[in-house]
Structures are given as structure tokens and as C-alpha cells.
């Protein structure tokens, strides 16, 4: 006879389906937390660019302070001629040479705005009289033409000097236009401010 199976033997039989041994446990079970995704890992490795990035208000205050200091340095440089803090378009020995040459000479362009204002006022006052209005208009056009020609010729002379001084292939582009635009600015309003007196042409 075969003895019937007892309940004791059934209780001792291992339940392989519910085994939690180290070999069968998943990585999440072993660490006690789910494996982070790639996106989460990259986000964790990121660091704030500034120390106060966690405080947006403080970060904005620091940025405003830095911007104000940069503007103050630039304004001071525009007044003193310190090219380290000037805008890029004004830096360099050639740009300095052009400014000094333009500031050392008298040009009709620098008086264009005041003269044009006088013409406008006269046009309103005596503009109803065609015998006066037409000559005024022609004189205005003539003034513009002479001022432009004078400034362009000065720019061409400056470019020739730059070629002689720095070499044909070393002259920066845009020098003539830079000289023309500065020639049409009134001397007290020029930026950067003139660093030479009238007649003190650069060597």
C-alpha cells in the first residue's frame, strides 16, 4: 500500500513561484526604488549657471546690477576714449584714426542740422511767397549736395591715408561710411567724444 500524502509534507514543499531570492529579485526590488530614466538623470546632473538661480528675484537683481555696471563702463569709455569698453564698431586703431581725422577738420555736414532748422523756420514764415520759397528750396538742396560731397571726399582721403599707414590689404571695410556719418554729427554730440582739437590731425 502506498501511504496517502499528508498535509505536513505539502506544507514543507517549496513554492517556487513566489521565491524572492537575490538571484530572482528585479533591480528595482534590490535598490528599493525604480531605475531613473535618462531624462531624469540628465536633469539631475544639470547645475544652475549662477549661484542665485534658485531665487529668480535675486538673479534678476544681479543681472540688472551687471547690466548697469556694463553701461556705466561703456559710457565712461565713450567719453574718455578707452576702447576696451567701447562697442565693437568703434574699436581699433583705424577707427580711432578716422575719428581723430574727422574731429580735427571743419566740415559742412556738422552744421547741416542747425542750418536745416533755419531753412524750415524760414519756409514757414515766408513760404507763401514763391519768389522766396523757391530760392530757399534750391539753397537747401545745394547745401545737402555740398555737405555730402565734402564728407565723401574726406572719407576717401582718410581711406588713402589708412592704406599708406596700415597697408592696402589691412584696411577695414566701412571706413568711408564711418567718416561720413561722423562728419554729419555736430561735434558736441559725437560719440565717442572727440579726443583731439581742431587742426590736430593724426600722423
UniProtKB/TrEMBL annotation:
Signal peptide: none
Keywords: Membrane, Transmembrane, Transmembrane helix
Residue segments, region Disordered: 1-67
Segments traversing the membrane: 106-126, 132-156
Record flagged with keyword Membrane: yes
Listed InterPro entries: DUF3043
Entry keyword annotation includes Membrane: yes
Biased composition (Basic and acidic residues): 27-45, 57-67
Organism domain of life: Bacteria
Name this protein carries in UniProt: DUF3043 domain-containing protein
Organism: Miniimonas arenae
Amino acid at each position: 500500500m502506498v501511504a496517502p500524502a499528508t498535509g505536513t509534507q505539502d506544507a514543507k514543499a517549496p513554492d517556487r513561484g513566489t521565491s524572492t531570492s537575490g538571484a530572482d529579485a528585479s533591480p528595482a526590488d534590490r535598490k528599493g526604488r525604480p531605475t531613473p530614466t535618462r531624462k531624469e538623470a540628465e536633469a539631475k546632473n544639470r547645475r544652475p549657471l549662477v549661484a542665485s538661480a534658485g531665487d529668480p528675484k535675486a538673479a534678476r537683481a544681479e543681472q540688472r546690477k551687471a547690466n548697469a555696471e556694463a553701461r556705466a563702463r561703456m559710457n565712461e569709455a565713450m567719453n574718455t576714449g578707452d576702447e576696451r569698453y567701447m562697442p565693437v564698431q568703434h574699436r581699433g586703431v583705424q577707427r580711432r584714426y578716422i575719428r581723430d581725422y574727422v574731429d580735427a577738420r571743419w566740415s559742412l555736414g556738422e552744421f547741416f542740422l542747425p542750418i536745416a532748422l533755419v531753412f524750415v523756420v524760414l519756409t514757414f514764415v515766408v513760404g507763401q511767397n514763391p519768389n522766396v520759397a523757391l530760392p530757399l528750396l534750391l539753397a537747401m538742396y545745394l547745401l545737402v549736395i555740398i555737405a555730402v560731397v565734402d564728407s565723401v571726399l574726406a572719407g576717401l582721403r582718410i581711406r588713402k591715408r589708412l592704406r599708406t599707414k596700415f597697408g592696402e590689404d589691412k584696411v577695414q571695410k566701412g571706413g568711408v561710411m564711418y567718416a561720413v556719418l561722423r562728419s554729419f554729427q555736430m561735434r558736441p554730440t559725437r560719440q565717442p567724444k572727440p579726443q583731439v582739437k581742431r587742426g590736430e590731425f593724426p600722423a
